[in-house]
Amino acid sequence: MSADVFTIEPQWIVQAPHLRCTLKRALALQSAYNVWSGTEHINNAVGMAYGNELPDSGRWELTRSQLRTLKIAIEWRRATRAASDKKTAPDILERWTRIEDEVIAAYRAASNEAGLYWI
Question: How far apart are the C-alpha atoms of 71 and 58, rounded to whole Å?
């Protein structure tokens, strides 16, 4: 496998649908919120949200760019969730957070492997 492709083994069957929903929301609101600053991320988001790049079962093989696209969308969703006056049930929010943290950890590992470290 190429060093440019990173594998994630989803732990929950709701992981892919949750992330696709996150990407679809971000794409729908891209023009209002400018979630991503470049077309590369928008193209990645379209492919993952509407293509078969985030299957419900099996491994995900994603590029560092796709992982960054997901990370940005997750951070945007977390910020909008925090700014909202709507409250999410704690057990649901805990699952979402674990799903999102797994993707962010994969992005961090991919970045570290490339010699890019976070402070």
Answer: 20
